[in-house]
Amino acid sequence: MATVSDDGIRWQRLSDQPFLRNGNPDDWNACESGHPHLFTDTDGRTYLFYQGNNDQGHTWLLTHQEIFWQVDRPIILSHPQPNGSM
């Protein structure tokens, strides 16, 4: 669930839905979509980097996608394919 905090102690849930869902059963991220990091580029655009896998954690695939903002909340428009594996 997406949460926000002003002090790192008290948290407020932003939604009852996960911000980043796992993929469908045959997708590259069927078992996991996690370990996210937000990056703000010098042009002000925000990107989410995260890993996924479809083999119960035996490999990790990495991807990124642009995050858009709506009323100061991040939104994802689609789930991309992985950029590589580790």
Short summary:
This protein has 86 residues and is an all-beta fold.
Written description of the protein model:
The protein is mostly beta strands and 86 residues long. It has no helices and seven strands. It has strands spanning 3-4, 12-13, 32-40, 46-53, 61-70, 73-75, 84-85. The strands form two sheets. Strands 3, 4, 5, 6 and 7 form a five-stranded antiparallel beta sheet that branches. It has a two-stranded antiparallel sheet with strand order 1-2. Strand 4 and strand 5 (61-70) form a beta hairpin. It starts with a strand and ends with a strand.
**In whole angstroms, how far apart are the ends?**
26 Å
Unreliable stretches: none
Major sheet: 5 strands, antiparallel
Q: Determine the number of helices (DSSP H or I, runs of at least 4 residues).
A: 0
Mean pLDDT over the residues: 84
Layout: helices, strands, pairs:
Blueprint: E1 3-4, E2 12-13, E3 32-40, E4 46-53, E5 61-70, E6 73-75, E7 84-85
Jot down its keywords.
86 residues, mainly beta, 5-stranded antiparallel β-sheet, two-stranded antiparallel sheet, 0% helix, globular
